[in-house]
Amino acid sequence: MPxxxxxxxxxxxxxxxxxLPATKxxxxxxxxxxxxxxxxxxxxxxxxxxxxxxxxxxxxxxxAISNHFDSVPELEDKLKDKGDTERLRRVLESSDxxxxxxxxxxxxxGLGHAVLRAQAxxxxxxxxxxxxxxxxxxxxxxxxxxxxxxxxxxAAIIALMEVDPDHVEAYGVASVEQTDTDGIVKxxxxxxxxxxEEAPSNxxxxxxYVLAPSVFEILERTEPGKGGEIxxxxxxxxxxxxxxxxxxxxxxxxxxxxxxxxxxxxxxAIVQLAxxxxxxxxxxxxxxxxxxxxx
Length: 295
What we know:
It is a single chain. This protein is an alpha/beta fold and 295 residues long. The protein contains eleven helices and 13 strands. 36% of the residues lie in helices and 23% in strands. A hairpin with a 5-residue loop joins β9 (172-178) and β10.
Protein backbone atom coordinates (compact mmCIF):
# COMPACT_ATOMS: atom_id res chain seq x y z
CA MET A 1 0.00 0.00 0.00
CA PRO A 2 1.50 3.40 -0.93
CA UNK A 3 2.45 5.70 1.91
CA UNK A 4 -0.17 8.35 2.60
CA UNK A 5 1.09 11.89 3.17
CA UNK A 6 1.45 12.98 6.76
CA UNK A 7 -1.06 15.23 8.46
CA UNK A 8 -0.42 17.43 11.48
CA UNK A 9 -2.46 18.00 14.64
CA UNK A 10 -1.96 21.05 16.85
CA UNK A 11 -3.81 20.89 20.19
CA UNK A 12 -4.80 24.45 21.14
CA UNK A 13 -7.71 24.07 23.55
CA UNK A 14 -5.90 24.90 26.81
CA UNK A 15 -7.09 27.75 29.01
CA UNK A 16 -3.69 29.45 29.38
CA UNK A 17 -4.26 30.21 33.05
CA UNK A 18 -0.57 31.00 33.64
CA UNK A 19 -0.91 34.09 31.46
CA LEU A 20 -4.09 35.55 32.95
CA PRO A 21 -5.42 38.18 32.56
CA ALA A 22 -3.85 38.41 29.07
CA THR A 23 -5.52 35.12 28.10
CA LYS A 24 -8.93 35.94 29.56
CA UNK A 25 -10.23 36.81 26.09
CA UNK A 26 -7.27 35.87 23.87
CA UNK A 27 -6.04 32.31 23.31
CA UNK A 28 -2.55 31.72 24.74
CA UNK A 29 -1.53 30.39 21.31
CA UNK A 30 -2.12 33.89 19.94
CA UNK A 31 0.27 35.60 22.33
CA UNK A 32 2.86 37.38 20.16
CA UNK A 33 6.41 36.08 20.04
CA UNK A 34 8.16 39.17 18.62
CA UNK A 35 5.65 39.92 15.84
CA UNK A 36 3.94 36.60 15.11
CA UNK A 37 1.56 34.62 17.32
CA UNK A 38 3.14 31.52 18.84
CA UNK A 39 0.92 29.15 16.86
CA UNK A 40 2.15 30.55 13.55
CA UNK A 41 5.68 29.36 14.32
CA UNK A 42 4.25 25.86 14.85
CA UNK A 43 2.27 25.89 11.61
CA UNK A 44 5.36 27.14 9.76
CA UNK A 45 7.38 24.26 11.21
CA UNK A 46 4.87 21.71 9.92
CA UNK A 47 4.76 23.36 6.50
CA UNK A 48 8.56 23.46 6.32
CA UNK A 49 8.58 19.69 6.94
CA UNK A 50 6.28 19.20 3.95
CA UNK A 51 2.95 18.85 5.77
CA UNK A 52 0.20 20.93 4.17
CA UNK A 53 -2.88 19.47 5.92
CA UNK A 54 -3.15 20.70 9.51
CA UNK A 55 -5.90 20.22 12.09
CA UNK A 56 -6.04 22.60 15.06
CA UNK A 57 -7.94 21.36 18.12
CA UNK A 58 -9.58 24.40 19.69
CA UNK A 59 -11.76 25.16 22.70
CA UNK A 60 -14.15 27.96 23.58
CA UNK A 61 -13.17 31.55 22.77
CA UNK A 62 -10.54 30.38 20.29
CA UNK A 63 -12.00 32.03 17.17
CA ALA A 64 -9.01 34.38 17.01
CA ILE A 65 -6.88 31.41 15.89
CA SER A 66 -9.07 30.60 12.88
CA ASN A 67 -9.39 34.31 12.07
CA HIS A 68 -5.60 34.68 12.03
CA PHE A 69 -5.14 32.01 9.36
CA ASP A 70 -8.06 33.28 7.26
CA SER A 71 -7.69 35.93 4.59
CA VAL A 72 -8.68 39.53 5.45
CA PRO A 73 -9.51 41.19 2.10
CA GLU A 74 -10.12 44.67 3.53
CA LEU A 75 -6.71 44.70 5.26
CA GLU A 76 -4.99 43.25 2.20
CA ASP A 77 -6.61 45.87 -0.07
CA LYS A 78 -5.57 48.69 2.25
CA LEU A 79 -1.96 47.53 2.30
CA LYS A 80 -2.02 47.17 -1.51
CA ASP A 81 -3.36 50.70 -1.90
CA LYS A 82 -0.61 52.04 0.38
CA GLY A 83 2.04 50.12 -1.54
CA ASP A 84 3.12 48.44 1.71
CA THR A 85 4.33 45.29 -0.03
CA GLU A 86 6.39 43.91 2.86
CA ARG A 87 3.54 43.98 5.38
CA LEU A 88 1.18 42.65 2.71
CA ARG A 89 3.55 39.74 2.09
CA ARG A 90 3.60 38.91 5.79
CA VAL A 91 -0.18 39.07 6.11
CA LEU A 92 -0.69 36.83 3.07
CA GLU A 93 1.94 34.41 4.36
CA SER A 94 -0.15 33.42 7.39
CA SER A 95 -3.17 32.50 5.25
CA ASP A 96 -1.16 30.65 2.58
CA UNK A 97 0.92 28.37 4.82
CA UNK A 98 -1.24 25.23 4.65
CA UNK A 99 -4.75 23.85 4.43
CA UNK A 100 -5.83 24.45 8.04
CA UNK A 101 -8.90 22.86 9.62
CA UNK A 102 -10.44 23.25 13.07
CA UNK A 103 -12.35 21.01 15.46
CA UNK A 104 -13.49 21.69 19.00
CA UNK A 105 -12.26 19.50 21.84
CA UNK A 106 -15.40 20.04 23.93
CA UNK A 107 -14.37 19.16 27.45
CA UNK A 108 -10.67 19.68 28.25
CA UNK A 109 -9.87 16.08 29.17
CA GLY A 110 -6.15 16.07 28.46
CA LEU A 111 -3.72 15.78 25.58
CA GLY A 112 -4.71 12.18 24.81
CA HIS A 113 -8.34 13.24 24.47
CA ALA A 114 -7.38 16.18 22.25
CA VAL A 115 -5.44 13.85 19.94
CA LEU A 116 -8.40 11.45 19.87
CA ARG A 117 -10.60 14.29 18.57
CA ALA A 118 -8.43 14.26 15.43
CA GLN A 119 -9.36 10.68 14.51
CA ALA A 120 -12.02 11.48 11.88
CA UNK A 121 -9.78 14.01 10.14
CA UNK A 122 -6.58 11.97 10.25
CA UNK A 123 -8.18 8.73 9.01
CA UNK A 124 -5.54 6.24 7.88
CA UNK A 125 -2.71 8.77 7.71
CA UNK A 126 0.25 8.84 10.05
CA UNK A 127 0.39 12.25 11.68
CA UNK A 128 2.53 14.62 13.66
CA UNK A 129 1.37 16.21 16.90
CA UNK A 130 2.92 19.61 17.61
CA UNK A 131 2.29 21.41 20.88
CA UNK A 132 2.16 25.18 20.65
CA UNK A 133 4.03 25.75 23.93
CA UNK A 134 7.27 24.39 22.44
CA UNK A 135 8.74 26.43 19.61
CA UNK A 136 11.58 24.82 17.66
CA UNK A 137 13.96 27.22 15.97
CA UNK A 138 13.52 27.10 12.20
CA UNK A 139 17.30 26.83 11.80
CA UNK A 140 17.33 23.45 13.59
CA UNK A 141 15.99 20.20 12.11
CA UNK A 142 13.69 18.05 14.24
CA UNK A 143 10.34 17.23 12.67
CA UNK A 144 11.84 16.12 9.35
CA UNK A 145 14.07 13.64 11.21
CA UNK A 146 11.09 12.32 13.18
CA UNK A 147 8.99 11.82 10.04
CA UNK A 148 11.83 9.95 8.32
CA UNK A 149 12.34 7.73 11.37
CA UNK A 150 8.64 6.88 11.47
CA UNK A 151 8.69 5.97 7.79
CA UNK A 152 11.73 3.77 8.37
CA UNK A 153 10.44 1.93 11.44
CA UNK A 154 6.67 2.35 11.59
CA ALA A 155 7.17 3.17 15.27
CA ALA A 156 5.76 6.02 17.30
CA ILE A 157 8.44 8.73 17.41
CA ILE A 158 8.80 11.25 20.22
CA ALA A 159 11.14 14.20 20.61
CA LEU A 160 13.38 14.02 23.67
CA MET A 161 15.65 16.60 25.23
CA GLU A 162 18.09 16.46 28.12
CA VAL A 163 17.16 18.74 31.01
CA ASP A 164 18.55 19.46 34.46
CA PRO A 165 17.37 16.59 36.73
CA ASP A 166 15.81 19.21 39.03
CA HIS A 167 13.31 20.05 36.29
CA VAL A 168 12.03 16.57 35.33
CA GLU A 169 8.88 16.93 37.44
CA ALA A 170 7.41 19.23 34.79
CA TYR A 171 7.65 16.65 31.97
CA GLY A 172 7.00 13.13 30.79
CA VAL A 173 10.30 11.28 31.24
CA ALA A 174 11.64 8.37 29.16
CA SER A 175 13.67 5.30 30.02
CA VAL A 176 15.69 4.41 26.95
CA GLU A 177 18.12 2.00 25.31
CA GLN A 178 20.78 3.13 22.87
CA THR A 179 20.55 2.20 19.19
CA ASP A 180 23.19 2.06 16.46
CA THR A 181 22.16 5.52 15.27
CA ASP A 182 23.48 8.58 17.08
CA GLY A 183 20.65 10.68 18.47
CA ILE A 184 18.03 7.91 18.14
CA VAL A 185 17.05 5.83 21.19
CA LYS A 186 14.55 3.05 21.79
CA UNK A 187 12.04 4.05 24.44
CA UNK A 188 11.34 1.26 26.93
CA UNK A 189 9.09 3.17 29.29
CA UNK A 190 7.54 6.54 30.06
CA UNK A 191 6.38 8.16 33.26
CA UNK A 192 4.41 11.40 33.53
CA UNK A 193 5.88 14.13 35.77
CA UNK A 194 7.84 11.92 38.19
CA UNK A 195 9.63 13.17 41.27
CA UNK A 196 13.34 13.76 40.68
CA GLU A 197 14.36 10.67 42.68
CA GLU A 198 11.91 8.45 40.76
CA ALA A 199 12.76 9.66 37.24
CA PRO A 200 14.29 6.96 35.00
CA SER A 201 16.51 9.52 33.19
CA ASN A 202 16.80 13.22 32.44
CA UNK A 203 15.47 12.74 28.89
CA UNK A 204 12.10 14.44 28.75
CA UNK A 205 9.41 14.58 26.09
CA UNK A 206 9.12 17.91 24.37
CA UNK A 207 6.03 18.74 22.38
CA UNK A 208 6.59 16.79 19.16
CA TYR A 209 5.23 13.33 18.30
CA VAL A 210 4.81 11.32 15.10
CA LEU A 211 2.16 8.61 15.41
CA ALA A 212 0.45 5.93 13.36
CA PRO A 213 -3.38 5.98 13.28
CA SER A 214 -3.39 2.76 15.35
CA VAL A 215 -2.80 4.99 18.41
CA PHE A 216 -6.48 5.99 18.32
CA GLU A 217 -7.58 2.48 19.28
CA ILE A 218 -5.36 2.68 22.36
CA LEU A 219 -6.53 6.19 23.28
CA GLU A 220 -10.17 5.07 23.07
CA ARG A 221 -9.60 2.63 25.93
CA THR A 222 -7.05 4.67 27.92
CA GLU A 223 -8.43 5.48 31.35
CA PRO A 224 -7.90 8.95 32.84
CA GLY A 225 -4.47 9.13 34.49
CA LYS A 226 -2.53 11.85 36.24
CA GLY A 227 -4.72 14.90 36.91
CA GLY A 228 -7.85 12.98 35.90
CA GLU A 229 -6.97 13.48 32.23
CA ILE A 230 -6.46 11.07 29.35
CA UNK A 231 -2.70 11.16 28.97
CA UNK A 232 -1.01 10.60 25.61
CA UNK A 233 1.99 9.39 27.65
CA UNK A 234 -0.08 6.43 28.91
CA UNK A 235 -0.90 5.36 25.34
CA UNK A 236 2.76 5.68 24.36
CA UNK A 237 3.71 3.59 27.38
CA UNK A 238 1.42 0.82 26.09
CA UNK A 239 3.03 1.01 22.65
CA UNK A 240 6.51 0.87 24.18
CA UNK A 241 5.59 -2.20 26.26
CA UNK A 242 4.11 -4.18 23.34
CA UNK A 243 6.71 -6.84 22.39
CA UNK A 244 5.00 -7.51 19.05
CA UNK A 245 4.56 -3.93 17.88
CA UNK A 246 6.97 -1.48 16.22
CA UNK A 247 7.52 0.24 19.57
CA UNK A 248 8.46 3.81 20.41
CA UNK A 249 11.68 5.59 19.46
CA UNK A 250 13.01 8.93 20.55
CA UNK A 251 14.87 11.57 18.54
CA UNK A 252 17.16 13.47 20.90
CA UNK A 253 16.97 17.17 20.08
CA UNK A 254 20.04 19.27 20.85
CA UNK A 255 19.00 22.45 19.08
CA UNK A 256 17.24 25.66 20.07
CA UNK A 257 13.86 25.27 21.76
CA UNK A 258 11.77 28.05 23.23
CA UNK A 259 9.24 27.20 25.95
CA UNK A 260 6.42 29.73 25.70
CA UNK A 261 4.20 28.00 28.27
CA UNK A 262 6.00 29.64 31.19
CA UNK A 263 6.01 33.43 31.67
CA UNK A 264 9.74 33.78 32.28
CA UNK A 265 10.65 31.42 29.43
CA UNK A 266 8.16 33.20 27.17
CA UNK A 267 9.99 36.48 27.74
CA UNK A 268 13.35 34.76 27.16
CA ALA A 269 12.03 33.36 23.86
CA ILE A 270 11.07 36.83 22.64
CA VAL A 271 14.47 38.25 23.63
CA GLN A 272 16.44 35.43 21.99
CA LEU A 273 14.47 35.41 18.75
CA ALA A 274 14.46 39.21 18.44
CA UNK A 275 18.20 39.42 19.10
CA UNK A 276 18.88 36.93 16.29
CA UNK A 277 16.84 38.78 13.69
CA UNK A 278 18.60 40.86 11.07
CA UNK A 279 15.99 43.62 11.25
CA UNK A 280 15.89 43.88 15.07
CA UNK A 281 19.14 42.43 16.41
CA UNK A 282 21.52 45.26 15.46
CA UNK A 283 19.47 47.77 17.48
CA UNK A 284 18.66 45.43 20.35
CA UNK A 285 21.96 43.70 21.09
CA UNK A 286 23.86 46.86 22.22
CA UNK A 287 20.85 47.86 24.33
CA UNK A 288 20.76 44.40 25.96
CA UNK A 289 24.39 44.83 27.00
CA UNK A 290 23.74 48.28 28.44
CA UNK A 291 20.65 47.07 30.27
CA UNK A 292 22.46 44.00 31.67
CA UNK A 293 25.28 46.20 32.94
CA UNK A 294 22.78 48.19 35.01
CA UNK A 295 21.39 45.12 36.77
